[in-house]
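Our preliminary data section would be incomplete without showing what the modeling component actually yields. Below, a chain of 273 amino acids is followed by its predicted structure, encoded as tokens that our downstream tools consume directly.
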Amino acid sequence: MVYIGFVALVQTDMKKLIAYSSIAHMGFVTLGSFLVYDIIAGTGAVQGAGMGIDGAMVQMVSHGLISGALFLCVGVMYDRVHSREISAYGGVVNTMPKFAAFMVLFALANAGLPGTSGFVGEFLVIIAAFKANFWYAFLAAVTLILGAAYTLWLVKRVIFGEVANHHVAELTGSQLPRVHHPRHAGRRRAGRGSVARAAARGHAGDRPASRPADRRQQVAPMNSEITVTGTTLVSCMPALPEIYLTARHLRAADGRRVLRRQAPQVSRPRSRC
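Predicted structure:
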């Protein structure tokens, strides 16, 4: 636990620092769980063994809540600045005071401030360690001091002080990430492209003011000429009263109805009926 505390103290990445502090907290859980054997072997009683087990259980629950909250705070800042380096921040309290208050509260709970859940679990484990061996309690207390050191140093460099750079200056509490739905983005792109093509061809002002209720357009009867990509064809289909195509397949151009889709290429010669 002491070694992990020193490793966390030299970290420059916020997420790594919180991860190493989680390992130190799980060291308290392990210590409280296995103290029962030394206490029973040394004293022959189970008076302090239950205290170590209780401290380990409280520490597990506390660690899950506090570490999750700190990782959430780091994610909120990373989503805006796109950096987890401690040197990229400074003076966050000047731009997001409510967020800074919550992060300081979670950081103090991580350091074991009296009145928080982190203090209850670690204090019970240290008291139980005194009943087993003095040096166990001494090492646990050193780990607790190191935890307060790297947590408060993190808060000092990230939350307090002057605004470090323009990225921190642009942070606001109401700033939310923009979510671009692919379906909506495709509709916007299609709408802009249709307007641009219509304006380029000069038909933007030729559209009627109102569209009929039935979007299907009636095509000329069979055996009439239809212009397809500049080629005049004569229908060879049997005589039918009429044929319908949807409006998106047709475009009015110089008074003629033109199919928008490319006509298939046929190798054999076309014949008139």
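The beta strands are 217-218, 225-228, 231-234, 244-245, 250-253, 256-259. Residues 49-81 form the longest helix (33 residues). Preliminary results of this kind motivate Aim 1 of the renewal.
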